[in-house]
Amino acid sequence: MHYCPKCKSRIEIQRTFNQKIHFSCSKCKIEDIVDSKKNLDEAFLEFLIKFDNDEIPTKKEVGSTLEKEGMLQTEEEINKMIGDSKIGDITRSVLFSKRHYVSHFKVIEEPEPEMGSTVEDSGLDKRIIESLESKGIKKFYKFQEDAIHHIVSGDNIVITAPTASGKTEAFVVPIMEKIASSKSSLIQAIFVYPTKSLSRDQYPKIKEIADKMNIQCAVFDGDTKQTERQDILSSPPQVIITNFDVLHYHLWHRTRFAALLNTARFLAVDEAHVYSGIFGSNVHYIIKRLKRIAPKLQMIAASATLDNALSFCQMLFGVKMVQVLGSGKKGKTEFSMLFPSLMTQRALMIDILKKLTTKHHKTLVFSNSHLNSELLALQARRQKVDIKVHRAGLMANYRRSVENMFKSDKLLAISATPTLELGIDVGNVDGVISSTIPVNRLTQRIGRAARKGQGGYAFLILGNDPISQYYKNHPSDYFEDTEQVYIDPKNPFVEEFQVIAMACDKPIAKHELPEHKDVIQRHVGAGNLVLIENRYVPNYDQIKSILEEYSIRGIGRSIDIFLNDKKVGERVLPIALEELHPHAVYFLAGTRYQVKETGYPEKMTAKLEYLPKNYPYYTKALTEEWPTIETVFEKRFAKGIEVAFCKLHIQKRVYGYVNLELGQEVGQGQKIILEKPLDYDFVTKGIVFKAPRPLGEISKAENEEYVEASGYHATEHVVIEGSNMITGGVSQDLGGISLGTSGLVFVYDSAIGGNGASRALYDRLEKAFERSLDIVTECPCKNESGCPRCTFSYRCGNNNEYLHKMSAREILQRIKDGEKTEIIEPSEGDKPLV
To answer: Which residue numbers delimit the Helicase C-terminal domain (predicted)?
Structure first.
């Protein structure tokens, strides 16, 4: 602990992005910057000596130094960004705080959406008109009118529009109109939502219109009570609200519920953009299976605004579709993009959160992982912020209580993962703070603010990572790097499993599904399917365990998590090994626990125990990985670099972990080696390329092998981290390995079998190389290994060791200059760096 030499209160210490240490006291207002090549204690001693000698600079002098070094802007530069905009006191205090770099500022004022005809003149059933007018809807937006026309005409349609813009009415109204005209008492429509929470949140809106039309609707999911299930099965409603997990389970079990679905005429899938990666690849097949038993399905998708929404949905649904684009109406929002020069990303997010909640502005804070959402809430509560966590993996009743507390003004702030990007109604929101994500998803998040017409605040807080440093210097590129959602229907594990499930739903005719004939024959050879009277029938005794263990949200087997002998959660392999190894710190519902026992591989369990509240650490796993190329699907040259898209076999080992101090977001920690390592291997898809040798750096080095291998390792990091938004924010779905001095760099899908992420990078590798060079060239750090803003990765399984920034810079420059390379097979002596 370090204390202010003037008032003895705790001194604030931050490592700045140019590798210096900033000391400051919020009470005395004294501050100084010290070179961080020394360790922290030495740097603090230098600060004390300067204080004793009366050499501490004034706040103005410190600010001037920071401006010259590009860490802050002048007031004139910030005022130029603001222009003629009238901004609130909170935004002004943030912009001029001299604690961070303001990369971009603008006031978002959405234009009035284009209007369509009045509800009264729409020609719809009078009961629908009365229902809409009772909710204050007198006129349709033009996109709603267009969507209604296409659905009534029988078109398959994708509706893309921002949060709270009226997408629900755009598909519910015409579906209800057509159901009412059919006068059928059987199931007519299936409305699918990605979570049970969202299903139950939307149910009242749907039921309100249905009741006016004398149409029955019900929610059928894992939370539906047994008595309600019996009512649904004995007297089916015309509209079922559910999720794909439920559809998958009941289809392959051929339950009474599945038998009722064959009369369905409409499949409406809300928040379709969520079905990316492995989950989306499974959903693609579940939709295909639904069409086998309900062949007259009309497909309707509602999605956030994406560049590739139409092509993505056509792949997801397997049909040609029409796209309708919409917009909504909301209040003025003051938007700031900030780079944390003098503090960590999380510290800056909490600092702004305190400013908003002190003025009683209800605020959502979005992080991109469950660990970061938990850490933010933990540290914010220590600063007396009224905040709770909302993320996947928490019990449904806990999440609902958080939503209700916020909605009823009993809670001021929520620390959320993407769970609240979805359309769950949490009431009035004044401010949104977000970590770095693609601009499309940012639009979804900040669309939560000012929905009631009031002024709103939105802050994008860039991180302590390579892509954030790039956006600091090139903010306009952020708004051009739009998200590309993706699925991989040819994932061999998904395809093989889903073909078995299809046969369980309904035997496969001998000449049916020619696109899957090879997979069908493999299952016949393995005894999973049996040909009987020209139909492929499942061998239930052999495949039952396969079907029961499979998760459509992730292929790997799960490790069950227990606390006091009660199951409190689960994590899917292989990520489970990194989070649930012995002595790992695990976060759950705002509380930290330690793993006291891991049963893997004999038992798929992990047991937790409580940690003291003041425990200063969290953990990150140390890993070793070895890749083997099994099949090369295709090759090409990116600039002069040969790159192959492959099927890869990955051998993974968790051999230890590091303790990281709370508040430290990325970097290096104290290494601890496990007594018994955890091993796992899996097959996936990925790319491999051969990087050029950094001859200039090698010629200057005493240890040539270290400089070369560390250059390739740093290149692997920066290519993955720096390409994040180019590939649609998929870096969290990627792993990487550089093989010693071979120059071979592997980037692979972290999901078993592949999820499409590495394919996105394969297609855009030239741009990824260019951006990677910009990142290492523009970063002002002087460290040989670089820093969190250029070469470090928070996913690094090697504790961010064996990195050489200048070697990576030369490698990337040689790529830009067109040097040619060819892929060679690795030798056994090449040590992998991950």
So the answer is: 348-493
